[in-house]
Amino acid sequence: MLRYALLLLGCLAVVPVAWGADLRLDGPLVQGGMLIGHAPPGSRVSQDGKTVHVSPEGIFLVGFGRDDGAQSVLEVITPAGETLQQTLAVASREYRIQRIDGLPPRKVTPKFEDQARIKADIAAARRARDRDDPRTDFMTGFIWPATGPISGVYGSQRILNGKPRWPHFGVDVAAPVGAPVVAPADGIVTLAHPDMFYSGATLIIDHGLALSSSFLHLSRILVKEGQRVKQGELIAEVGASGRVTGAHLDWRMNLRDKRIDPQLLVGPMPGQPAAH
Known about the structure:
Glucose Permease (Domain IIA), 21 strands, Immunoglobulin-like
């Protein structure tokens, strides 16, 4: 699985897309990818007709979901009133199918009495990810929040006890209960929930411009909602809470309504053999 992930990253050249001296996009043009854009301060930006928040410095983010189409239209209106439009060619990816058996039936097909709790969990997570302010904490770059073998990758679809489920939208890092989890980038804690039905102890950190990281299945959360954290700061411990078959960290990232691939924002996993 790790070799597959590293090969994928090696194939995704991060090529800048330049429109001119004051307009630039950096990042992989691929499903699950994210671009960092630079435009003249005061510009207005939209992606596929949806408004994109621009920081006072002219920085903005563009993301592509797991199953997004081959094209995405980006429009920039400069402070001078000039409208610039570009159709971005988004590369497709192949995703793996993962079968997991032996889960408690209640975690695969929740009982009626669990539905209210699940809906409340979803609403709480959505509120935590709705923040969209001009901070650009993500400009610190990203590091791995935990280290260990990669046991699950973005985009793979899981079949639980023989029943197809939603695709996996994060990267799983296998580690023992109690292993440290650190902030992958600067940010503000927007959710610190002790026990969600599916994800167990769950933490969400907002990195600015509606970009957030979620950390699932924790054993302990060491920060509080509203707290500012710095890259590399200890924020939690790996666990096996929620719907899991073993201890690991599930790291997910959202950009507005797009679920993006965290692996595309970090380098190779420390301490793991390189792909050949």
